[in-house]
Amino acid sequence: MNETRVSRIDPPRDGTTWREGEAPELPRPRGIAGWWRVIRRGLPAILVLLIGVILILPMRGIEKLFHGPRRPWSGPHVQLVCRLVLLCIGLPWRREGQALRGPGAIVANHSSWLDILTMNAALPVFFVSKAEVHGWPGINILTAVTNTHFVIRDPKFARAQAEEFAARIRAGHRLLFFPEGTSTDGRRVLPFKPTLFQGFLDPELPKDLAIQPMSVAYHAPAGSDPRFYGWWGDMGLADHLLAVLSAPRQGWVEVVLHPPVPVVGETRKTLAAKTRESVRNGLDTVLLESDNRA
């Protein structure tokens, strides 16, 4: 990889941090046209989410009766709901690469609250998130629909959570992790935290377990800041939501699935390094191609 590409994706090497740069000013809805776009996109999206939540509750009850802990119906249902919400918002997307077959999990870069929609639209997944997210207004609706796996960062719960994690993997759930531990501006991949990969080494997990890296690239609307879809730092959720809904034109999203990394013979550090390299190279390639087209 040449130096130009590394400098854009990796954190600076001069002792500063990428967060020290100013976040882009979020555009506010302007005039009647701006607020009309918010209403025209936001109301149908909310309606789709509400209908999706209402339908999935009895579906999961019936699903549990016939399939136990597996999710053969509700996974595709959530995928359809997320695709419809993106359609309401007017944000197109596309997927490249083949989904993992067999037992495993997915790791990806984290840029925005939009990740819940775009990643689930690409393939049925179950997110792994910190427990605090469960109480965030608005986001908690999305986590309920997607059956998010919440993690409490307390060592005394580590064994119980590892057992629950292993049970979901054995049930065929595609758990999706954000090993960066935080969201970014969508233009870089931060170092992956090796401790988050410890759960993949549990002896109770299937021996043929693999981890599939995923790169998600957000392309801003023409003329907008390249970081337009990134939700990070001190950005308010409501402000960012209004900025996306009121945009005169939307950009688009690209989801790239990379070859899975078998867990056998790896350590948490090597898993973190190998999967991050795939995610980083994938994002770098997509952004470079986009910059060249522009």
UniProtKB/TrEMBL annotation:
Compartments, record wording: Membrane
Transmembrane parts of this sequence: 38-57
A GO BP entry: lipid metabolic process
Location (main, coarse): membrane
GO CC list: membrane
Keyword Transferase applies: yes
GO MF term set: acyltransferase activity
Keywords, alphabetical: Acyltransferase, Lipid metabolism, Membrane, Transferase, Transmembrane, Transmembrane helix
Renumbered residue ranges of the record's region Disordered: 1-23
Phospholipid/glycerol acyltransferase domain residues: 104-219
The protein, known as: 1-acyl-sn-glycerol-3-phosphate acyltransferase
Organism: Paracoccus methylarcula
